[in-house]
Amino acid sequence: METPKLDAAALATWLARYEHAWETKDPAAAAALFTEDALYHETPYAEPFRGRTGISDYWARVTADQRDIRVDVTPLGVLDGGTGVARWHATFTLISNGAKVELDGIFVLDFASPEQCRVLREWWHAR
What we know:
The protein is an alpha+beta fold.
């Protein structure tokens, strides 16, 4: 049986689950969006976080210092039935020092199935 292809509706659903995981600071929910052997490239030149455990550990660490998180992700398109592209925007306050952070970025997402991302690549800028 052939794996179902990613379409615009499936990408939007996956991105909504990603937003929710971030806003609720839920590393397990974030990790569940990825395959067991997924690669999560936070920046182009850093080593990716590997697998669900690596992704969960990363999310637990970075969201621990965030509060009042607001995330908005806009799907931009689906390429070749397995790659999604989206623009995202996030704001939050750092618990450690009260600084307000605003991020704007792009995702390129390679999917193994409509529910499971195999590779996430992101490019972002902070203000």
